[in-house]
Specification:
alpha/beta; Rossmann fold; seven-stranded mixed beta sheet; 9 helices; globular
Length: 275
Amino acid sequence: MPHELATNLVQIKQSFAQNYSGNAHIQEVIPSTESKKFPFELKHLESLHNFALKNPIYQNHYEEKIDDVYCTVYEGDINEYWLNSIKHGSSCQPFYPTWILSAYLMTSIVKDLGYSELVDIGSGDGRIAYCGNILGMTSFSIEIDDVLVGLQETICEKTNQNFNPICSDALEFNYSQLKLKKPVFFIGGLAQMGGDVLATSIIDKINSIPNLKNNTCIVFAGTHTKRQLSGNLENGGWSSLIEKHDLKVLDTVTLPTIWTFDQPLDTPYIFTKFN
């Protein structure tokens, strides 16, 4: 089901992007109610809208029918947070979030795969960790930028969803203190923008914790864009790291992100585990 929903979401995004006449810095859509194309649990859908409504980066929203689906369009501005996010030397990528609904679909996939804890590395405003929380997972949100962590804390308070924001350099954080049993790690940042260094550090830390390696899933954000990959399109640019660390690809799903809004190809997310 998540794959079918992902396909439907990409179609909605493409139609919306082609016809969008606004001038907001960022924009995304969430179905206003459940439908045949998006048969969500109503409480989860309401929680996704609540995240957007209580998130200060969104300053406007309105209703629009897109491909016969009634949607809410959320418009906002992340310039302030983007500028703060690039000031850290070990930051792998500026703050450019995935869509809220994309975050929900990704976390739904790992929940269906049987993972019970979620650790979002380079978590931005915490949307992936938030979605894990509403799906009943224990979430931890690791973010190096104190301004973004402050934003997450505001969202936690306003939504009454504690997804455990932690202000820390992911390269230095002690993950053993989280007492993880069967976690999924989401790696923020493309391989070509320093994400490979971050991922290697996280994998080393996973290997250092007894009995964790064989129970862990790692999700990478990739790209289909040749200029970013220098010709290597396999596994969204993560093939070398996947091979080096003997990871097995469990699944790949393509979803809309804010950074691919004006592009014909959206963002592939690669789900892996240790062989």
